[in-house]
Design a protein that fits this description.
Layout: E1 5-15, E2 21-28, H1 32-36, H2 42-46, H3 51-59, E3 60-63, H4 71-75, H5 79-92
Antiparallel strand pairs: 1-2, 2-3
Length: about 100
C-alpha cells in the first residue's frame, strides 16, 4: 500500500499567538493541483518564491494543535523550519535523490 502521509518534527516549532509551540506535524504527498493552484495566486505572480508558502499550506495536514495550516501560519515559521519543510517536501515527493552516507 502506498504511504501518502508522513510525520515530521520541526527543529524549532511554530509559535502561535498564544505562545504555544507546535513541533510535530503531518505532510501528505503532493498532487499536481498543489503545484498548479499557486500559479494563479496574485501573491505568487508578484513574488514567485511565495509559491512555496502556498504549496506547504496545502500539503501540511496537521501541525500540533493548530486548527488549520494556512499560508499565514507558514509565513510565521522560523526560517530553519521553513527550510526543513521544503527539504522534507522534496524528499517525500521523491524530487531529490537520497544522500548516500
Amino acid at each position: 500500500m502506498l504511504q501518502t502521509e508522513f510525520e515530521f518534527t520541526l527543529p524549532k516549532g511554530y509559535l502561535d499567538a498564544d505562545g504555544n509551540l507546535h513541533r510535530k506535524g503531518v505532510m501528505r504527498l503532493s498532487r499536481a493541483m498543489d503545484e498548479i493552484v499557486p500559479l494563479r495566486d496574485p501573491r505568487v505572480k508578484s513574488n514567485p518564491a511565495y509559491a512555496t508558502v502556498i504549496i506547504l499550506a496545502r500539503v501540511i495536514t496537521k501541525l500540533g494543535a493548530v486548527d488549520e495550516v494556512t499560508p499565514a501560519v507558514v509565513e510565521d515559521l522560523f526560517a530553519c523550519d521553513l527550510s526543513h519543510l521544503q527539504q522534507f517536501y522534496r524528499q517525500i515527493n521523491e524530487l531529490e535523490e537520497e544522500v548516500q552516507k
